[in-house]
Amino acid sequence: MSQQTDSLPQLRFDIPEVARILRLSRATLYERIRAGQLLTQKDGRRTYVTAEELQRYVTQSR
Fold it and tell me: Would residue 3 count as lying in a domain?
């Protein structure tokens, strides 16, 4: 029996990942979140940015 593993695309990113992707400091990233430039999702205490929102932000920032 062969085990097939289809990996799912990453749907959301945590704050350190988003900062690394956008090449921003965490402080700057949080400033943009507070200003409403980047929307987040909360899951318990953790904060995430969806892949869709990240793409919208990058496209809009051009």
Answer: no
